[in-house]
């Protein structure tokens, strides 16, 4: 029934389009509608590629509808064949969603990590080779755009253009802020944020690396302050230098300020705000200067501010 609906929609769409522009452009229209239902490529990209390949005359091109005029009909036909959203974590993944546009493997792991808990890992062979060849990797998760029945979208990035040890620490912040030389290599859809799930993810990557004659042994790892992730990294990559992201670090401190009920004081009292910001800035100091600077920050604070920030200082000291 669904197939008949798609055929009917495409037939109506094609007839109306031919009526508008004539039969000279029939080939390009047929290619557009066929690719729209057979591929997941963006309609605008399909339109551009077919226009380039068609070599139509300027006069004929002038009669063609714009992509925004064709797009609604093509998208409607595509939606008729798009799988419905699953009602549980047990669902089949069509082949077209497991492969890249060049028909290479993209879904390289589909694993159950617990009862009704599924972990999907996506990445092409080229991306995975880049990840395994890199000594510096970045990890981060997002929770706001997660599919139903999953907890987070977790990505792993690799630094493609390596630098010397001396230059690395000087340039990495510049690269991150302006040049974005890290490349996404793995896209994971995870069921939770537990240490055991992260460890399973790392073991899958290590096994896959061995299967293609590589090793997954990064020497530097940058991530947020997720407790389960920190434990998993310590267990699986004990020899690696693990650093927290400065943005997430400052966010963690500010969240603690909010939890302790100091938000109003932070915005209204300049000395309190200054002490909190200096606390955040300690991470930018050389390692051998942090402890003494933290002690100095507490000593030089007024008695009232020291009392107000006592719990915040304890939190920082225990981390």
From TrEMBL:
Write down the superkingdom of origin: Eukaryota
Q: Where are the transmembrane segments?
A: 166-190
This protein's species is Rotaria magnacalcarata
Pinpoint the MULE transposase domain residues: 182-250
What InterPro entries does the annotation carry? MULE_transposase_dom
The name on file for this protein is MULE transposase domain-containing protein
Keywords associated with the record = Membrane, Transmembrane, Transmembrane helix
